[in-house]
Amino acid sequence: MNIYKSEAGRQLLEGKYREALKTWPVEHETLTVPTREGDTFVVASGPADAPPVIALHGSMANTLRWLGSVGEWARNHRVYAVDIIGEPGLSAPARPPMDTDAYALWLSDVLRELGIERATVIGESLGGWLALDFATRRPEQVTSLVLLTPGGVGRQKMAVLFKALFWRMFGEWGQRRALATAIGTELDPVAASYVLAISKNFKPRTKPLPVFSDETLRVLKMPMLVVVGARDQMLDTTQTASRLGAAAAQARIEVLPSAGHYLPDQTKVITEFLAGVHA
Questions:
Q1: For 85-130, what is each residue's pLDDT tens digit?
Q2: Closest-CA residue to 58 (of 81, 42, 33, 78)
Q3: Which of 112, 126, 239, 255 is most buried by its number of CB atoms within 10 A?
Q4: Cα dihedral value 231, 235, 239, 245, nearest 10
């Protein structure tokens, strides 16, 4: 599957990614593990014998999402930042159907190849959907769950797409405005430039994420931390919080009143949650 708009675009983004990986803030190793969907790229940090944590980024992103958090998490955990297949990282370009168990099987392969029986799974947006999908299909493999603005629970909003299309007509300034509108915040210039390069050269997923039923969500019995932004322009986070709260009484749910889809730094609250789970 060709997930890039051109070969030159693929090479550009891959080069930028590899260069940025040199700034990884802690000692680490890079791994490429085989799965039924092709090779999967992983950055592993932290003590090898510490409790394992799997971190899944969102759409149109890669493991760089965790640059600001991995240093803290890796103090007491073995953090595996995984490039999701079909996204602009170094994993295979495969995009199997999302209304099947294909992604749960893929993630099971990743854990098996890493020698992990059970792990905490952190997921953001698309990664949150993948974390939920895996946890509902393989609950015995999930120690705890951290969901940041997860997809597949609250209604997806479409109006933001039309707003973004409008702003994109105004050149690079408009593209930056479209990005800020979609995620609900202004990124720093370096991060914004990288995200816009991805937008220019990468073909994003276009189909809505499958929505989990209430019955499926009731399978979740593990400790959970859910953080959403009340001003999310992409997902109905009120519905997300309500449905997950009703299905999983043990879940700790935080709604940030001034946040959008891209949340402010949640490193500390996640670190505290992990400490409680693995105490």
A1: 999 999 999 999 999 999 999 999 999 999 999 999 999 999 999 9
A2: 81
A3: 126
A4: -90
Q: pLDDT tens for residues 14-28? A: 999 999 999 999 999
Cα–Cα distance measured from residue 56 to residue 95, given in angstroms and rounded to the nearest whole number: 15
| The two three-digit tokens of residue 37, written as one number | 């969907």
Q: Are 98 and 207 in contact, with CB atoms under 8 Å apart?
A: yes
Domain edges within the chain: 7-157+205-277
Buried b (16+ CB within 10 A) or exposed e, 200-232: ebbbeeeeebeebeeeebeebebbbbbbbbeeb
pLDDT in tens, 213-249: 999 999 999 999 999 999 888 899 999 999 999 999 9
Q: Which residues contact 55 (CB under 8 A, 6 or more apart)?
A: 63, 65, 66, 70, 73, 79, 80, 81, 82, 122, 123, 127
Torsion of CA 38, 28, 276, 64, to 10 degrees: -60
The answer for residues whose C-beta is within 8 angstroms of residue 167's C-beta and 6 or more apart is 174, 175, 177, 178, 181
3-state SS, residue 17? helix
Report the pLDDT value the prediction gives residue 166, as an integer from 0 to 100: 40
Percent of the chain with pLDDT over 90: 77
Name the 3-class secondary structure at 120.
strand
Instruction: Record the tokens describing residue 270, joined without a space.
Output: 């996640």
| Model pLDDT for residues 15-63, shown as the tens digit of each residue | 999 999 999 999 999 999 999 999 999 999 999 999 999 999 999 999 9
Specify the CATH class of 7-157+205-277 in words. Answer: alpha beta
Separation in Å, CA 210 to CA 101, 133, 151, 205? 12, 10, 8, 13
